[in-house]
């Protein structure tokens, strides 16, 4: 990403970071409701991360019976270098950056850079998104993971590109570890892409062209470095005709 869109996005994200810093410096209200609960879990995860790996994993799983641990533990990990509240809001700003860039990339791929920039601006300045910057909750990271999943899905070309499809699977796993409603937001468009892939008339050819043999199995992918598989029916009149299958099968008579 270069040129004017990069400058505009940098200015947008930097401006929102300044707004967040100013607001947090003047807002003296203590955390409440989910904001306080997630902050508490971030501090507990930080304490767990300071213990031996096996015990830490057990404690993190035990503390994540309702909400997945990835966001709170990211804040807990940053808590080793920053104060707990600053670490939590750094995670929120990172989620804003991720979601904004993913939406810009999606709009640029589907339409043009101007459309992507407009979509990114509308997302980043939405009232609830700005509100989420000021409160450590899971909604903004969830939105960022949904945007990243859509961006990855657009690059799979109806699930025909195996590299982007594997990346999409990883993103969806991280999305479920962010907040379970991720499945509700991503499943519809994923099913639509799978339906389109199943209906594509050239799906076998695209799969053989894009998918390597070790993943798709023998007979697909590139044939570079190995001899082609012999046809079970040699052309009529060749020395091997009828040696593998009856001549009537080869000729169709």
Secondary-structure element pattern, one letter each: HHHHHHHHHHHHH
N-end to C-end Cα span: 61 Å
Indicate the radius of gyration in whole angstroms: 26 Å
The total strand number stands at: 0
Number of helices: 13
Q: Outline the low-pLDDT stretches.
A: 217-228, 239-244, 246-253
Fraction of residues in β-strands: under 5%
- Look at the structure and give the mean pLDDT: 80
Total domain units: 1
Structural category = mainly alpha
Proportion of residues in helical segments: 55-70%
Sheet with the most strands, sense and barrel status: none
**Shape, per Cα inertia axes:** globular
How does this structure look, described?
With 253 residues, the protein is mainly α. It has one domain (4-199). Helix content is 69%, strand content 0%. The protein has 13 helices and no strands. The protein has helices spanning 4-26, 33-49, 53-63, 70-78, 84-110, 113-124, 127-133, 139-155, 162-178, 182-199, 203-210, 213-216, 247-251. Helix 1 runs antiparallel to helix 5 (84-110), helix 1 packs parallel to helix 6 and helix 2 runs antiparallel to helix 3 (53-63).
């Amino acid at each position: 990403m270069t040129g004017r869109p990069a400058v505009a996005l940098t200015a947008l994200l930097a401006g929102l970071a300044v707004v967040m810093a100013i607001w947090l410096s003047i807002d003296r209200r203590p955390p409440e409701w989910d904001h306080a609960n997630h902050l508490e879990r971030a501090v507990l995860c930080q304490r767990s991360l300071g213990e031996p790996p096996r015990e830490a994993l057990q404690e993190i799983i035990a503390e994540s019976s309702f909400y997945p641990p990835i966001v709170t533990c990211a804040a807990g990990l940053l808590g080793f270098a920053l104060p707990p509240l600053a670490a939590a809001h750094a995670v929120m700003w990172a989620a804003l950056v991720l979601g904004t860039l993913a939406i810009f990339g999606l709009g640029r791929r589907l339409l043009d850079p101007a459309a992507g920039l407009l979509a990114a601006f509308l997302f980043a300045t939405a009232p609830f998104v700005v509100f989420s910057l000021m409160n450590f909750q899971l909604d903004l990271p969830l939105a960022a993971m949904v945007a990243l999943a859509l961006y990855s899905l657009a690059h799979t070309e109806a699930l025909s590109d195996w590299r982007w499809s594997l990346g999409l699977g990883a993103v969806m796993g991280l999305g479920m570890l962010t907040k379970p409603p991720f499945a509700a937001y991503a499943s519809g468009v994923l099913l639509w892409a799978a339906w389109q892939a199943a209906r594509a008339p050239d799906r076998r050819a695209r799969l053989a062209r894009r998918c390597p043999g070790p993943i798709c199995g023998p007979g697909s992918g590139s044939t570079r470095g190995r001899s082609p598989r012999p046809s079970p029916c040699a052309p009529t009149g060749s020395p091997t005709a009828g040696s593998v299958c009856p001549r009537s099968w080869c000729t169709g008579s």
